[in-house]
């Protein structure tokens, strides 16, 4: 992973939400390997602790913080724990998310509220709290929102999820506009289909695992969490010093247009 070796975020303090598994864990590990001190946040300490132990056992600096990102008091407490431990916050990666597959006519008010509480309110609250700390420090910072290509194009059975991702995209632009005067850059990374355990329903996961999503991506495979980390290191570094309010799609080319995989017997 070449970008982790150049030290562009060495010594900085990064907060990563949803860091126990999947994309969040991959980002936290990559940041630590790049020399950052990492505050790993998750609602479930039982899954977060092994992830943080793996980072610290490798000789890197990391802190485990349990918090529900949709709860303002817990968010404020998590930010304070980060500052108490490492003295500052330079980077925030909003990654904690909730994904459910349900027909639009079956989405209850409770499910709709839960989706937006985690995916939108959580991003808003953590960005707000981290930005206050960055403004107080007076030297700028970087906020990175992990969104989805579902912010760009809707899909059946996840209309509520797609709507929440569209809101995340607008939060990215809005925070970028208002925080620019403080030299705080705000960008989004929008993954396509990535192997992860965000889907809690084993029946839905079984269906997803049976679909060859790679067939719909010109690069010919599903993404992995490690495919996301290079962009997150870049956007957090001074190499991206003139980039804010942007969304970077990482989808194997799936959103480039309609793609028909070449038949096995088609001429080259």
From TrEMBL:
Q: PANTHER family recorded for this chain?
A: OXIDOREDUCTASE, SHORT-CHAIN DEHYDROGENASE/REDUCTASE FAMILY (AFU_ORTHOLOGUE AFUA_5G02870), SHORT-CHAIN DEHYDROGENASE_REDUCTASE FAMILY PROTEIN
Q: Pinpoint the Ketoreductase domain residues.
A: 12-152
Q: What is this protein called?
A: SDR family NAD(P)-dependent oxidoreductase
Task: Extract the GO molecular function terms from the UniProt entry.
Answer: oxidoreductase activity
What InterPro entries does this protein map onto?
A: KR_dom, NAD(P)-bd_dom_sf, SDR_fam
Top-level division of the source organism's lineage: Bacteria
What keywords would UniProt list here? Answer: Oxidoreductase
EC assignment: the record states: 1.1.1.-
Q: Which family does it belong to?
A: Belongs to the short-chain dehydrogenases/reductases (SDR) family.
Instruction: Enumerate the SUPFAM superfamilies for this protein.
Output: NAD(P)-binding Rossmann-fold domains
């Amino acid at each position: 992973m070449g970008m982790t070796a150049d030290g562009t975020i060495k010594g900085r303090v990064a907060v990563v939400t949803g860091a126990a598994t999947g994309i969040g864990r991959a980002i936290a590990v990559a940041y630590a390997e790049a020399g950052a001190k990492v505050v790993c946040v998750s609602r479930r300490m039982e899954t977060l602790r092994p992830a943080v132990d793996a980072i610290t056992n490798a000789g890197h600096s990391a802190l485990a913080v349990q918090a529900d990102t949709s709860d303002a008091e817990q968010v404020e407490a998590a930010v304070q724990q980060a500052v108490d431990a490492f003295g500052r916050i330079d980077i925030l990666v909003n990654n904690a998310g909730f994904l459910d597959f349900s027909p639009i006519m079956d989405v209850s008010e409770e499910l709709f509220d839960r989706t937006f509480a985690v995916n939108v309110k959580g991003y808003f609250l953590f960005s707000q709290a981290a930005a206050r700390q960055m403004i107080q420090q007076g030297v700028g910072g970087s906020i990175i929102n992990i969104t989805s290509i579902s912010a760009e194009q809707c899909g059946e059975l996840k209309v509520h999820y797609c709507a929440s991702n569209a809101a995340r995209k607008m939060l990215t632009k809005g925070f970028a506009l208002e925080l620019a005067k403080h030299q705080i850059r705000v960008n989004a990374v929008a993954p396509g289909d990535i192997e992860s355990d965000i889907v809690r329903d084993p029946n839905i996961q079984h269906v997803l695992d049976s679909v060859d999503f790679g067939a719909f991506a010109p690069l010919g495979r599903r993404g992995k969490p490690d495919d996301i980390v290079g962009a997150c290191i870049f956007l957090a570094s001074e190499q991206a010093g003139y980039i804010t309010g942007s969304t970077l799609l990482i989808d194997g080319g799936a959103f480039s247009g309609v793609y028909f995989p070449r038949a096995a017997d088609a001429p080259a």
